[in-house]
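Posting here for the record, re: adenosine-5'-triphosphate.
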Amino acid sequence: MTDPADAVRPTVAALETIVSLAKRRGFVFPSSEIYGGINAVWDYGPLGVELKNNVKRAWWRAMVQERDDIVGLDAGILMAPQVWVTSGHVGSFADPLVECLACHQRFRLDELPGAENLTQTELADPTIVERLGLRHAEDGGVLTPPRRFNLMFKTFMGPLEDEAAVVYLRPETAQGIYVNFRNVRETSRKKVPFGIAQVGKAFRNEISPGNFVFRMREFEQMEMQYFVRPVEGARLAFEEWLPRRRAWYEQYGVAAERLRFREHAPDELAHYAKKAVDIEYRFPFGWKELEGVHNRGDFDLSRHAAATGENLEYFDPATEEHFIPWVVETSAGADRAAFTFLLDAYREEEVRGERRVVLAFHPELAPYKVAVLPLLKKRPEIVELCHRLVDDLRRDTMAVYDDTASIGKLYRRQDEIGTPWCVTIDVDSLEDGAATVRDRDTMTQERLPIEGIRRAILDRLAAARG
Ligand code: ATP
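Prediction output follows.
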């Protein structure tokens, strides 16, 4: 069967192309590189931090700023360890691990060829590896029966490194929201349905990390928990949030054909979920989860209420009912989202016999919104005018000045990092007070009065935001 995602032009670049561009231009570096690196941790460089901040800002805008019914939170990474017992993570947040007896490499069983579609029951079956005759594809080594490997990182709090001092690095941001449910509701005086949103680091000791920033051991989540009336309220909220979250990726430029929904089979559901649908993206390594929308029922709040003896019920003044709200969660990864926007924006074009690489980022996501370039850097009046303009632009947005190459090269450089507009100041500018504004995507050039350029760029940004 042909995949409609493959018909979309331009096609998604190979993973190596993106990894190499990311390194070369300062988006993403391997962590601790001068020490030989550390597996599955990546550092964001000068352009990457801008991109990721813009992704998080765009998410916050859609999920908090523009909504009357959602408020934000920033909870700690370290929480009372009992939280993770109650949430089920200590008992159930585990993946099936198998080890090759020849080379001692470890794998997640459900990622091995031939085991991708196994049910949870099959994945836990100690005879499964033998029954299916699974071997390590590379060296033919015998694989051990699966054992459950807990993904939580542990550390110690305080001066004693004993069992009683163990705390966990949170594997999801959601629990910080549940334990603050009452605090937030009381102080914000929100009525059900309402949501709490949070962006922050999460840590998972993944068995087989990889594919660049797709699966890391330290990453960032953008999660929103929407508290609703039981059962029907959750069903309705789920139906609303699922398409809305997919539309957010499309709004910021991801090709619709490279997005799809995939519902989890009942046996695949996480321990807390009543229903789960993934928004998947067609990565160069296949269709993979980009974001999950989950109906968590009253699992978390009920369990926390039972474990603490605290009353986490909501009183509905309209119906005079007390109930524990149900939760519909939208759970996205900031790194996976930034990676997706980067992949989907990548274009290679032929322009007048030359290869042009462009990151066609949505202007809101672009690290720099505008570059100011002198046509002749030998003329101090031109350079001075450039500096005045770039300083003016910097009061409102990310702007950059560059004079370290010829104008053609400078344009290509900005194209390759996705800067939507370049402003060039030339000799004529000294006479007519105007400059050339070049558009990244169409490469059209337009002459505008220098004093109106800041306004023009801001208007274009606002128009792109919609
Ligand atoms: P998987 O089954 O692929 O391990 P998951 O279903 O456990 O993932 P969730 O718990 O639903 O993932 O996490 C929500 C979101 O957090 C994911 O959609 C993804 O964007 C992000 N995410 C999860 N794990 C990682 C990771 N190791 N690296 C980067 N992002 C991650």
